[in-house]
């Protein structure tokens, strides 16, 4: 019987393990931490009964993929829940903008700039199933839907600041800046619009749902299916040498490229070892989890119903902050990504105490304390929120790395989204998952299609592993 060892139990390691086990491979999954899940863990970090997500909170690209279709995890209890407003961007003076799943409703709320918004996101949303099929795999491939991809590609190639100006108002530009800032890179750089266009369109086609009961529900469902298929999971085992896993026919590494190079050692071809060790990481994140009595009192009313909130002011302010963190400087007013998951999943509350998860973009390896900067940005758009905070928990970049070694320097998207790494990651090559060692594959978010709890990196890597050993499995997106 073909055997496999999967190193790392994040969503991609679990997806790889499931894909292999479904094809009849005997799978052993090893996790260094005491708890599986990687970026999809949840816990009561502030107060009893108040449930927070440790990292990944919203999952716009997880609900309809090749992996989700191959493994209907609803049978294991996974349920998605959607907020009324998918994401919002408050501005000073009670102004702001918001995104609903309906393009038309969103455009109408934007007033005079709604026509430009509709012109951008209307056609993309109508074709997004085909578009997502194309970008949820390695960029270098022969497209099945070239016409649909062309419209997406033209918008994605632009700097985010250019596309923001095309939206014709400060509110619309700020709204796009917030979603584009998920890329953790300067908004004036080429292709910096790509992730904003993808996530913005996904909000209309799929929404930005949360997993009922916390993101850990994704982990539980995947682990339950894996064990039902005969796979085993062992925690507290740190793999540092190839000899620990060399007995398996297939080895899948849900690790950073550098960690993979350390594990594989001299067996790794020199050019690939150099590429893995030269893989570039981006800025870090600093997290503050809050338990807030009555929720956050946003002055912009639609923001109170939003699952995700982007804080940073105008597009110019966000662009300046993102440029600073990219250059290693901590901005006075950083960009904040804030999750109000209980808007979609009320069971995460304790009475009227709401979980709030806020992340500031900070320089890689930032050693300072961004707590006050985060609280100040929230207070800026929600005066009086400090008085409602009943408990708080903080995670620095160092603590984030300690909890998940793949997040080098606190980089929770597992790699800088430079033009080169958007197209070729983790290295230039026709097969981004291959390590150059027969039977050994990299399957982390450092491989295509990148960050997100969609499991596609692991699924695609595992399908290649199955081809290599001559087993028919669920192939391709």
From TrEMBL:
It holds the Pfam family NAD_binding_8. InterPro entries: FAD/NAD-bd_sf. This is Phytoene dehydrogenase-related protein. It comes from Aeromicrobium choanae.
């Amino acid at each position: 019987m073909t055997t496999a060892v999967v190193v790392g139990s994040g969503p991609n390691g679990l997806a790889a393990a499931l894909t292999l086990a479904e094809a009849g491979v005997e799978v052993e999954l090893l996790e260094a931490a005491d708890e599986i899940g990687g970026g999809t863990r949840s816990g009561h970090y502030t107060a009893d009964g108040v449930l927070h997500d440790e990292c990944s909170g919203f999952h716009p690209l997880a609900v309809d993929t090749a992996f989700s279709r191959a493994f209907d995890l609803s049978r294991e209890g996974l349920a998605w829940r959607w907020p009324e407003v998918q994401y919002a961007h408050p501005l000073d003076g009670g102004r702001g903008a918001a995104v609903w799943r309906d393009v038309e409703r969103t455009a109408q709320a934007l007033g005079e700039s709604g026509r430009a918004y509709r012109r951008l996101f209307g056609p993309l949303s109508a074709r997004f199933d085909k578009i997502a099929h194309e970008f949820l795999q390695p960029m270098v491939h022969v497209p099945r839907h070239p016409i649909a991809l062309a419209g997406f590609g033209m918008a994605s190639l632009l700097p985010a600041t250019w596309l923001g100006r095309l939206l014709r108002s400060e509110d619309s530009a700020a709204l796009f800046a917030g979603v584009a800032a998920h890329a953790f890179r300067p908004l004036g750089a080429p292709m910096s619009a790509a992730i904003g266009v993808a996530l913005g369109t996904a909000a209309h086609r799929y929404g930005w749902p949360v997993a009922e009961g916390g993101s850990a529900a994704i982990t539980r469902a995947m682990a339950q299916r894996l064990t039902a298929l005969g796979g085993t999971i062992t925690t507290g085992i740190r793999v540092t040498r190839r000899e620990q896993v060399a007995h398996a026919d297939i080895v899948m590494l849900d690790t950073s490229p550098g960690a993979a190079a350390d594990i594989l050692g001299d067996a790794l071809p020199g050019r690939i070892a150099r590429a893995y060790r030269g893989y570039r990481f981006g800025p870090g994140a600093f997290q503050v989890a809050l338990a807030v009595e009555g929720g956050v009192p946003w002055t912009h009313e639609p923001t109170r119903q939003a699952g995700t909130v982007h804080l940073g002011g105008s597009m110019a302010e966000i662009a300046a902050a993102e440029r600073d963190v990219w250059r290693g400087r901590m901005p006075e007013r950083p960009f904040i990504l804030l999750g109000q998951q209980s808007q979609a999943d009320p069971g995460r509350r304790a009475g009227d105490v709401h979980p709030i998860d806020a992340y500031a973009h900070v320089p890689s390896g930032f050693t300072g304390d961004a707590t006050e900067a985060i609280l100040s940005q929230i207070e800026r758009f929600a005066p009086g929120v400090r008085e409602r905070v009943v408990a708080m928990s903080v995670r620095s970049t160092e603590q984030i790395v300690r909890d998940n070694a793949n997040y080098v320097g606190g980089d929770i998207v597992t790699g800088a989204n430079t033009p080169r790494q958007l197209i070729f990651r983790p290295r230039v090559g026709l097969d981004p998952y291959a390590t150059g060692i027969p039977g050994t594959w990299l399957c982390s978010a450092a491989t295509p299609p990148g960050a997100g709890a969609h499991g596609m990196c692991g699924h695609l890597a595992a399908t290649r592993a199955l081809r290599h050993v001559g087993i028919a499995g669920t192939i391709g997106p």
